[in-house]
Amino acid sequence: MANAAIKCEDIDCSRLFDDWSWLVPASHTPLIIGHFGDTVFAAPDGLHWLLSTLDGEYERIAKDSAEFNRLKGDPENVDIWFQWGWANIALQSGIVPPKMMSVWAGKSPQSLAGASAWKK
Predict the structure, then answer these.
(1) Tens digit of pLDDT for each residue in 26-76?
(2) Quick one: angle between helices 84-92 and 75-82, nearest 10?
(3) Alpha-carbon distance 33 to 20, whole Å?
(4) 3-state secondary structure the chain
């Protein structure tokens, strides 16, 4: 998991999710961010949530830290949460984010039809 994501405590995440405030509650704290911007958040009640920046989805993935720590030990979960397979291919091919400690992510879900159907 070490290469699949960056701990938010290691970077300034304070404004990274401003464009996602329509989906992510302000009371949720970002914990880990993947290379494509997908991020695990902790809620005040202990639940852990995953923001998928590609799909524009926010889903509960664990009931507490203990469950999250157990689940993140499974490489399949890491791949699902952070698209580690794709990120690893990009990194091994020399395709890296423009600067250290940055990610490839949009400010809104992507749409093949042009303008996003998502509304703030």
Answers:
(1) 999 999 988 778 899 999 999 999 999 888 899 999 999 999 999 999 989
(2) 80
(3) 14
(4) CCCCEEEHHHCCCCCCCHHHCCCCCCCCEEEEEECCCCEEEECCCCCEEEEECCCCEEEEEECCHHHHHHHCCCHHHHHHHHCHHHHHHHHHCCCCCCCCCCCCCCCCCCCCCCCCCCCC
- From residue 19, how far is each of 39, 44, 113 by CA, in Å? 14, 21, 20
Q: How far apart are the first and last CA of the chain?
A: 32
